[in-house]
Amino acid sequence: MSWVSSPSRRHGNPAWAAFRRLAARAASRDSALRHADWLLLAVVLALTLLGTLLIWSATQPMLIGQGSNPDEFLLKQVLDIALGLVLMLIISSLSTRQIRLYAPIVYGLSCLGLLAVLTPLGSIVNGARAWISIGAGFQVEPSEFAKLSVIVISAMLLSGLRSGERPGARAIARALGLAALPILLVAAEPDLGVMIVLVVIVGGLIALSGVRLWWMVGMIAATAVVVAAVAKLHLLKAYQVGRLTSFINPSADPLGTGYSAAQSKMAIGSGGLHGTGLFHSPIIAGSFVPEQHTDFIFAVAGNELGFVGSLLVIGLLGLLLTCALRIAARAEDQFGMLVAAGIAIWFAGQAFVNIGMTMGIMPVTGLPLPFVSYGGSAMFADMIAVGLLQSIRRPRNVFAS
What we know:
The chain starts with 6 loop residues before the first helix and ends in an 8-residue tail after the last helix. It has a three-stranded antiparallel beta sheet with strand order 1-2-3, covered by helices on one side. A hairpin with a 2-residue loop joins β2 and β3 (138-140). It has 16 helices and three strands. 42% of the residues are buried. The chain is mainly alpha-helical.
């Protein structure tokens, strides 16, 4: 009996027929793969690979000391990346028309998730009620997906105008009103870092939508009033005030609120030009830098890979932003331009704050480094954002449903 199936048998196999249909769809003229931005995908894969190695190096000694599986965080991060890539492929296959239609649903689900964390379903970590436990050691952080929802809903409200027309007061008021709900819910957790990112995203999208200058002046003035009110009414939590105080005066509490930033700067400074090498740093092995696999992952890069490795991370992030801005500039409509630009603002602002806080030029806020820090929710949101960029880049078929 022959073990090689005949062509007729293969053609009659349902699985083979499904594979052929899938291959034909992938090779079609309007397929997501055919029009993918391969440079963007390569940059994302490079960042995730580098981040995975840094996470492995940062967590293995700690887990060995606890008697746990030394590869636990590595395996979880690889799983998160794999699931994130699947989400990216699914989103990239959507058209911008479909994304626009789903924007209100995404916004509603995001707000429900933010509401859920404020109930007994939410769990408190590092002073913020921002996570929902789903079992097996996994948690979901709805505020990560709030960034996506604010981008797509704001882009939907600020676009759809006739060519050359500026958004009016009604469109701006709607965008500000809908963005205010997730911002207030995030503030209630409280998560100051995400709240700042959301405010910057909304402000940036309104500026890019073509509003008149006096609108921007008014929003800046209103933001200044809100910041002054928060400081005057003492609305910040004690640990948030401590972080800001330590940022302004690092020597005020070097063993308390200023400890993380001080250890991070020491780790980066001792890395030198080429670093100690992965898995060879006594500072990282001793876990002297708190949250070194999440918020302070850049300190691990600076210590173990040195100045050269730090430049590599920054360079890859710069390429990522270049790809996003190029897609925004070439978008076929204003909605696509605003979504791509909003993602660029998100990644740029978050990367600047994260790297800045590890070097002492920004206050500690707990924001992860895109595609590099450990965390499933952040990875999923980042990958979905890349899927949106790939969708916007794909030429639109006006005859498609």
